[in-house]
Amino acid sequence: MVRQLIVEADGGSRGNPGIAAGGAVVIDGETGELLAEVGVYVGIATNNVAEYRGMLAGLQRAYEFDPEASVHFRLDSKLIVEQMSGRWKIKHPDMQVLAQEARTLIGNKNATFEWIPRLQNARADAAANKCMDRKESFQS
User: Fold this and answer.
1) Cα–Cα distance between 56 and 51 in angstroms, integer?
2) Which CATH number, 3.30.420.10, 2.40.50.140, 2.60.40.10, 3.30.750.24, labels domain 4-139?
């Protein structure tokens, strides 16, 4: 049986572009247990790039728990959800590279994307903000 992991991811920038970071939490899909929190400091970037970086950091951390897991992403970025689901084109070159990196990591494994309201994404938002405050990446 394939393990189900949930990645809640977010990103932010203070200015657009500005100081930016992504954040994510990894949750066991069966038990609801919080397995990890990760923040990735991006430097100066747009909010959308930071969102992608948060999603990628969460994906990489999830695969550290189980490289064959089915990953369900929950993001408050409609842009990333629609782009990664293949419904919207990716026009920005930086985001094309990040989306391809995610697709390569996912390979032929199962990954689904769900949009959630910002208020339901508080843990990932907090991780991104903590990372921006520290100006350095972290993981637990």
Assistant:
1) 9
2) 3.30.420.10
